[in-house]
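Figure 6 in text form: structure in, sequence out.
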């Protein structure tokens, strides 16, 4: 007799369905059980407000977590950058699979790169983090741009460019990759130009903390290097007391010598959305061996950034 299907809770967006489908296949392979997708509408999907106004943190996550806690689904897949940094008492992130490309990309008219955009170009993005860094880049490179706050799914955002309403939009490479549209990117932004959101490109697979057998099965999909990197990034975000709509960028990457991973470099940035002031830091050290070591790496950098004035750049401190 076939084992009962595992129920995977997912948001309904095309991107969420694509990434959940990929996880479902992987979970099916490691457990030998069928996995069915259960579509759940979240407040972040239905609200037309800008993310910064509805609080940002957790708006895409709460409904999925409620379904998990009520036992309506067995596990859920989140974009890690949407997940609040405070751990949930009754849930556990059982796996963080290997990360996709963490960079941001530009989708622009006439296949232009960021540096080729016309003077006064209107660039759409929903993220204060991107606005801060794009505006800072423009200031230091003699460019004139206007960043325009937008919301919506991939189709909606790219539609603003196709219709001529905007000259370009900035999106996460990982999202375009997962929906099979990465060929529409006209420029990949170097992380030296725009640092991604903490956890960008990574997925979190979450389930009930008391489901030991499912936790063990899902753990086979965990990538320890990705987990160490995103733990450091999210620890930095948490220590800055900033929600996911704050203008904070962070990336931990692994520095390898041939096949051997030697060190981890953590970079962080906080800025005013007009790009007039940025606090940027970078630190390199041994790859954290434990969760505590990765947390400490992020916390220490946050302390240094706060000492350099980061607190005053984030507007309202998220409580």
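Output sequence:
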């Amino acid at each position: 007799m076939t084992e009962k299907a595992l129920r995977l809770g997912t948001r309904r967006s095309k991107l969420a369905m694509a990434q959940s489908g990929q996880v479902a296949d992987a979970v099916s392979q490691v457990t030998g059980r069928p996995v069915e997708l259960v579509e759940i509408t979240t407040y972040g999907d239905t609200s037309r407000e800008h993310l910064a106004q509805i609080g940002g943190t957790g708006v895409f996550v709460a409904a999925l977590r409620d379904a998990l806690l009520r036992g309506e689904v067995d596990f859920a897949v989140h974009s890690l950058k949407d997940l609040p940094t405070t751990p949930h008492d009754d849930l556990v992130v059982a796996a963080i699979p290997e990360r996709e490309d963490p960079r941001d990309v530009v989708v622009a008219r006439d296949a232009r790169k960021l540096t080729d955009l016309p003077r006064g170009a209107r660039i759409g993005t929903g993220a204060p983090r991107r606005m801060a860094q794009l505006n800072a880049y423009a200031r230091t490179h003699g460019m004139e741009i206007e960043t325009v706050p937008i919301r919506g799914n991939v189709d909606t955002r790219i539609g603003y460019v196709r219709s001529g309403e905007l000259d370009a939009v900035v999106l996460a490479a990982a999202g375009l990759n997962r929906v099979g549209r990465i060929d529409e990117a006209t420029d990949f932004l170097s992380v030296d130009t725009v640092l991604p959101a903490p956890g960008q490109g990574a997925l979190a697979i979450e389930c009930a903390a008391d489901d030991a057998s499912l936790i063990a099965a899902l753990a086979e999909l965990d990538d320890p290097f990705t987990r160490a990197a995103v733990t450091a990034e999210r620890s930095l975000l948490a220590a800055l007391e900033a929600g996911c709509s704050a203008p904070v960028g962070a990336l931990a990457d692994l520095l390898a010598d041939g096949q051997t991973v030697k060190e981890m470099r953590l970079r962080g940035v906080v800025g005013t959305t007009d790009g007039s002031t940025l606090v940027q830091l970078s630190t390199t050290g041994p790859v954290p061996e434990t969760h505590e070591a990765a947390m400490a790496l992020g916390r220490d950098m946050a302390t240094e950034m706060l000492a350099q004035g980061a607190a005053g750049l984030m507007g309202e401190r998220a409580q």
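Caption detail: The radius of gyration is 19 Å.
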